[in-house]
Amino acid sequence: MTIDNLKTPRVALGTWAWGDSGEAGDGYFGSRLTQASLEEVAEKAHAAGFTLWDTAMVYGMGRSETTLGKILERYARSDYQLSTKFTPQAAGTSDDPVADMLEQSLARLGTDYIDLYWIHNPADVARWTPHLIPLLKSGKVKHVGVSNHNLSEIELANRILGEAGFRVEAIQNHYSLLYRSSEQAGILDYCRNRGIPFFAYMVLEQGALTGKYSPENLLPKGSRRAEAYNCMLPQLKALTDKLASIGEKQGAAAPDVATAWVIAKGTTPIIGVTKPHHVDGLIRAGSITLTDADIAELEALADATDVSTRGWWEKEM
Question: Confidence class of residue 2 from pLDDT cuts 50, 70 and 90?
Answer without folding.
Answer: very low
